[in-house]
Amino acid sequence: MNWPKNKRVLALCGGVGGAKLALGLTQVLGPDQLSIVVNTADDFDHMGLRICPDLDTVTYTLSGLSNQETGWGRANESWRCMEALRALQGETWFKLGDLDLATHLYRRTQLDKGLSISEVTADLCSKVGIEHSVIPMTDERIETEVKTASGWIPFQRYFVEQQCQPVISAIRFVGSEQAKPSPGFTQELANHDLGCVIICPSNPFLSIDPLLSLLGVREQLAKLQVPVLAVSPVIGGKAVKGPTAKIMQELSLEVTGNTVAAHYSDFLSGFIIDSTDAAEAVALPSSLSVHTCNTLMKTLEDRVMLANECLQLATRMQ
Amino acid sequence: MNWPKNKRVLALCGGVGGAKLALGLTQVLGPDQLSIVVNTADDFDHMGLRICPDLDTVTYTLSGLSNQETGWGRANESWRCMEALRALQGETWFKLGDLDLATHLYRRTQLDKGLSISEVTADLCSKVGIEHSVIPMTDERIETEVKTASGWIPFQRYFVEQQCQPVISAIRFVGSEQAKPSPGFTQELANHDLGCVIICPSNPFLSIDPLLSLLGVREQLAKLQVPVLAVSPVIGGKAVKGPTAKIMQELSLEVTGNTVAAHYSDFLSGFIIDSTDAAEAVALPSSLSVHTCNTLMKTLEDRVMLANECLQLATRMQ
């Protein structure tokens, strides 16, 4: 795929699923052609450390440090600190590997020096050899909470500690009403060289909505004169990973790509669904440029291929 | 040694050297007979964690978790987090092992819940099976600083990062003017069952002076009607470990037990010096009950023996 050298691509993503496509995009676009804006509403303070699950998944994935099997955390990880913490009856529900801990300790140190999360992320990326821009969605604190039968609970308690067991009736992003996008995100949205926006196959309600909830972002996306594409995270009525399908059901939404497209309807111009869902395309709005291909990313080759499919669709839509 | 069941011993100590005698005392006194008050002026905040070197050395020593070779840190330690942090060019000058990190993460979590350092220490002791009371000298923050040619610097920067290389011209305990002893320390000093106070062979200027600098402590020690003993940390003109001798020279003090006794003169009633320094005893004030014995603690047996020597001297002085 020969994407124009002078055109930039803005990818929006959450954790594991989004990071796969982000990795694919880094393989076909140069550092001056791609920026990846990442959800930070899952971030939380834990034992004095700032944990940024989606940012870390993206940076570990792009740098080759990631655990390929789990999709999160680092390869060749060990758990001695967690074992010692368990002996103290400390908080071990959120697993922090010995290597992973270094990232959190480093981030804490840099944040304590007064650096923003954008600055700390850029620094961490440079330290692990990532040349593409990885940008936190905001430098302000936003915290996802989910409403369950026992009230609003912090996202990581739901997602990790309770393993997505509770039924969700609502989702909110505490702090988002007043939060501005980070300087990098703002700059990319306003960039004259922007060629397209790609919404990675992340959970629309948990991973992408936080980005869209930031001041002006949704409106700016709607005004863009360039293609805004999304890759559906739903394949054959199921999510590849995570609680997307379960949450959609609990929110009384049909578990289809069409629901996802409708969720983004005010700004979406292109939509990629898996070949197995080709029959669903007829129900999508005729205004939408729909493309079907394999969207399941098992290998690096799959990631690169999907990245190319996205860029090809964007090119056809120009 | 049959120390009276109903009489309490209050031991004051710093890190490695003091912890050895504290361990000896726990072998001959029951949990209801002994309290160990520990220096916390070396504590510092580092990468978001609260590090308490002397408290940890004492608790690791008493619980059997300590690294016998170094005297600090934990046995069977690993350094994977530090290695990953080094790759990020993070702060690795203060070595935190993977197991040791669990203690600091746990402490941070408990302090963030609003618990005092006394409460957190009692909790940590119970988790690792220590039955004797280990009491931080104060629940307030006091920070040792040393004056060098390049100005006042925090203690751990001097002690660990610069390995005691700079010449010291003064020592101060920032915050100590207004700081009260911890509730446990206050209670022990006022306890009607107090039978004696033992100042462990810790650095008088860095490890014991912080305890003495707390509001009213020095005055209360001077008023006690029971023996107040010290074990000299100087043997044959040298300190067993650490920078005691170097610092004494830099402060233009003679490196002898007599200097240590003079430093404690307003409250000291008994003094134990090593047999090799027996000749120096003649120069000590006649008001002081002096005892000479082996004070070098290489084995557990040595520690127990010195503990017994202390209690025997206190008994003779009643």
Question: What does this 3D model show about the protein?
Answer:
Two copies of one chain form a homodimer. Helix content of chain A is 38%, strand content 19%. By secondary structure, chain A is α/β, with parallel strands linked by helices. The first copy, chain A, has a domain at 8-43 and 131-147 and 174-317: Rossmann fold (3-Layer(aba) Sandwich). A seven-stranded parallel beta sheet of chain A has the order 5-2-1-9-10-13-14, with helices on both faces. A three-stranded antiparallel beta sheet of chain A has the order 7-6-8. At the A-B interface, helix 3 and helix 4 of A face helix 3 and helix 4 of B.
Q: Could you give the topology of this structure?
A:
Two copies of one chain form a homodimer.
Chain A lengths: L7 E6 L2 H13 L5 E5 L5 E3 L2 E3 L1 H11 L16 H8 L10 H15 L4 H11 L5 E4 L6 E6 L2 E4 H7 L8 E5 L8 H8 L3 E6 L4 H9 L4 H7 L4 E4 L2 E2 L2 E2 L4 H7 L6 H7 L6 E5 L14 E5 L6 H18 L1
Parallel strand pairs in A: 1-2, 1-9, 2-5, 9-10, 10-13, 13-14
Antiparallel strand pairs in A: 3-4, 6-7, 6-8, 11-12
Helix pairs in contact in A: 1-2, 1-12, 4-5
CATH top level of the domain at 8-43 and 131-147 and 174-317 in chain A?
A: Alpha Beta
Binned strand content of chain A: 15-25%
Q: Total helix count of chain A? A: 12
Percent helix of chain A, as a range, is 25-40%
What number is the mean pLDDT of chain A?
95
Q: Per the principal axes of the C-alpha atoms, what is the gross shape of chain A? A: globular
Query: How are strands sequenced across the largest beta sheet of chain A?
Result: 5-2-1-9-10-13-14
Number of strands of chain A: 14
Q: How would you name the oligomeric state of the polypeptide chains in this document?
A: homodimer
**Largest interface in this structure:** A-B, 29 and 29 residues
Question: Considering the protein shown, what is the CATH homologous superfamily of the domain at 8-43 and 131-147 and 174-317 in chain A?
Answer: CofD-like domains
